[in-house]
Write a structure and sequence with these properties.
The chain is mostly beta strands and 329 residues long. 5% of the residues lie in helices and 45% in strands. Strand 18 and strand 19 form a beta hairpin.
């Protein structure tokens, strides 16, 4: 009964608005993150593969800072430092060695008239960026808004609330977003569905934070059965990796990384997930919500992080994998 009660609580957390205790700091400050190494498989500590991905490391992240946690998206910089965004509009800068890059915590810039809004209103679930300009785009689920920020999140540039996004449920809206190499954007809904049960997906052909941009086209995403998208990265101009989440009474949180080969992107197109790797006990498993790509010595690296919902019975996990060169060949 205790297990059933716990899983039901987890499901309620996913379907409910952000909790008021997800409080962002009102000013920037320093951050100390402690890393605890973990094995990929608790039953087989020597295991180093899941699907096609080679396991390079896993860590539980902890901090005494009250705002730390709730990681919903992230970037990994060339120097290996991590820029993570929580689901309450809070930025975290940290590194595994505690020395590389800036170690900080800071709230996202907001409009002057909205500074008084409670931090849980800023349910920032997804981010993507342009490496050429350093500009960032963030999707806010609860207020159903897409905003663009200048390099380093130094300034809020523009925001837009699209009618197509407003049609989605507030607590299952823009959950995953990616900027494609050609400059177009894809925004995945978590609980917005099409007629065939697929997840709604919007294609923005121009900047989604600008009101003068053309309205998005409606596509759909066919996720692994029972799963919903939580983050996405572009491997190249024709392949995506999509992180998908599920919670059940039997297994708790599980996740699937799927490969999507992009069809011609036009209204009505269907993106189909091809399962690559599943994360369920005894493998490391929790509420995985964040993906990021980096490169190390010519190798492509995939990072995955979990959102602990600021709850004592969940963890902030960070996993690191090598992507095989043959994956998209």
């Amino acid at each position: 009964m205790s297990r059933i009660a716990l899983i039901l609580l987890l499901a309620i957390l996913l379907l409910s608005p952000p909790m008021p205790n997800k409080s962002a700091p009102r000013r920037s400050g320093s951050l100390l993150v402690t890393v605890h190494p973990l094995a990929l498989d608790s039953d087989d500590p020597g295991r180093d593969h899941v699907g096609p991905f080679r396991f390079l490391g896993g860590w539980q992240l902890t901090s005494t800072h009250p705002a730390f946690g709730g990681i919903s998206s992230m970037q990994v910089k060339p120097d290996g430092s991590i820029l993570a965004l929580s689901d309450s509009g809070t930025l975290f800068g940290f590194s595994l060695d505690g020395k590389t890059g800036r170690q900080f915590v800071a709230p996202l810039p907001v409009r002057r008239l909205e500074k008084g809004l409670p931090s849980y209103s800023w349910d920032s679930e997804a981010q993507t960026y342009d490496p050429a300009t350093g500009k960032h785009w963030v999707s806010f689920e609860l207020i159903q808004r897409i905003c663009r920020y200048s390099a380093g999140f130094a300034r809020l540039d523009a925001c837009m609330e699209w009618p197509a996004v407003k049609r989605w449920p507030e607590t299952g809206s823009g959950e995953a977003m990616v900027r494609l190499p050609d400059g177009r954007f894809l925004l995945f809904s978590e609980y917005g569905y099409g007629k065939d049960g697929s997840n709604d997906l919007l294609l923005f052909q121009q900047d989604p934070a600008l009101s003068k941009s053309v309205p998005p086209l409606r596509l759909s995403y066919r996720a692994p059965q029972g799963y919903r998208p939580t983050d996405v990265v572009a491997l190249d101009d024709s392949h995506l990796l999509v992180l998908n989440r599920r919670v059940t009474l039997h297994e708790g949180f599980t996740a699937v990384i799927a490969l999507v080969k992009l069809p011609p992107l036009r209204a009505g197109a269907v993106l189909v997930a091809q399962d690559l790797a599943r994360f369920a006990p005894p493998l490391l498993a929790d509420n995985f919500e964040a993906l990021a790509l980096s490169e190390e010595r010519g190798r492509r690296i995939l990072w995955m992080a979990s959102d602990d919902n600021h709850q004592f019975f969940q963890r902030s996990l960070l996993l690191k994998f090598e992507i095989p060169a043959s994956l998209t060949q």
